[in-house]
Amino acid sequence: MEYEQEENQAETNWEGYVDWRGKPAARHRHGGFLAASFVLVVEVMENLAYLANASNLVLYLLDYMHFSPSRSSNAVTNFMGTAFLLALVGGFLSDAFFTTFQIYLSSAFVEFVGLIILTLQAHSRSLQPPRCGSANPTEPCREPSTGQAAMLYIGLYLVAAGVGGIKGSLPTHGAEQFDESMPKGRIQRSTFFNYFVFCLSCGGLIAVTFVVWLEDNKGWQWGFFISTLSILLSIPVFLAGSAFYRNKIPDGSPFTTILKVFIAATVNCCMTKNSSNAVSSMVVSPACASEKIKGDEGKYKETDALEIQTDSIKFLNKAVENKPVYAALECTIKEVEEVKVVMKILPIFASAIILNCCLAQLSTFSVQQAATMDLKLGSLKIPPASLPIFPILIIMVLAPVYDHLIIPFVRRITRTETGISHHQRIGTGLALSIVAMGAAALVEIKRKRIATQTGMLDSSNPLPITFLWVAFQYALLGSADLFTLAGMLEFFFTEAPSSMRSLATSLSWASLAVGYYLSSVIISIVNDATGGSNHKPWLSGSNINHYHLERFYWLLCILSALNFINYLFWARRYKYRSTGSRT
Exposed, middle or buried: residue 171 (CB in 10 Å: 0-12, 13-18, 19+)? Predict the structure, then answer.
């Protein structure tokens, strides 16, 4: 009788999930696309708040804080890199100690505080360095004082911390609303990831048009104010879905499991193998066995696959070969296989870094390029920071077409749930990045040739070449971002063990972070390598017309090609473990 009661409860409640009050989540009330739709609306508002400033920040640092072009570029890439790297912290906390629901709310508040600080600084002239030539027209522009710089960086990095926590929790929170044990739930989850990127672009569209126009024409304080208001309003919108969310119960620190398996494997590698101990240790623990999903044909059984020992990464198998010296090092097959999954997805994560290094240029050098060109489109004058509208519009068009036309058509041909595999999507994005950087180099050659021919290398007037030429690299890299980001978000979520999903999904954002940091490192290396006694560094000085930016873009093109070859090596050897991912 008691067993039947527990079984009936399991059929009516989501196992391992609770509602916002900590009570068991009910199948008929919690989860589904209605719950995920609140996440999609919040993503529009959250990305608006972030991208409104990130896309135009390089010009704010140049014109108001009087940073040099290279210093402002590095400051922006470091800010954006930190924001995305901190997504790992948000993902870790969501898996280990808190729910994604709690992490989003606390992160949104932190970002709100940071934006208030930046708004106050942009509003008050006393909190900024003096305007150029205000005291003496011949005096060079003064950089911010220590206090002014401290206020700027405190505001920026509070925003970065908030953005990181949100990126590390919000996509996972939405994806966890779907029943992955059924094909319908997995297909809906795939649609969610496509529309998550679509909504991310919707927020970006408002940011790089309306908000950037406000910043350029009404003052930066208005841009920061709109961002502050947007992230503030996202909190009640998110809370409005509380009654529908199902929140995954944290499973403890995934790093503890990873560290334990590696230490146990290393210790056992140094010990004599004991066959009797190996047999006893190979028995699956009751806790793991009880996690199997009971259901009809077609249901997704993750734990069955993870409880069977595989021959890949054989070194880790040693963690269960001998009886551990210490009880704390005792491992199960499930724990070993979970760590193997994490190790296998890391090369895919690393392959996206160079692409994101290329994407970093859209917020730095590409904006500075466009600022020197003719920005008129008919009677309109387009702010340089609004150029990301091109990749954003492409994503907004392609995402629905991809989900509602291309994928259903390919599914009928391949007879698989995903239609196009995650690796094929990611690979398409990486291939497009090669073309994008080649196009960027050719456009820069054309721009500099016109500047030279017209004698305007040192002029501050717009060059007689339309900014639409720069739009090519924006459009190509935007398309690459759509394929790669959506593919990686879904790939990491579906392939990772359930106890590590937030952390694994955060790898998509962490690859952005490492890419932005790598961009700064490559710029520094290039300047050091090319700045000999008789030569000026490629990317140094206050005038971008004297940069050798085309050579830098060719370098990124070559690195992207080598990275694509490396990606193909790992992708061809990867074996999907989740239902519906196989091709």
Answer: buried
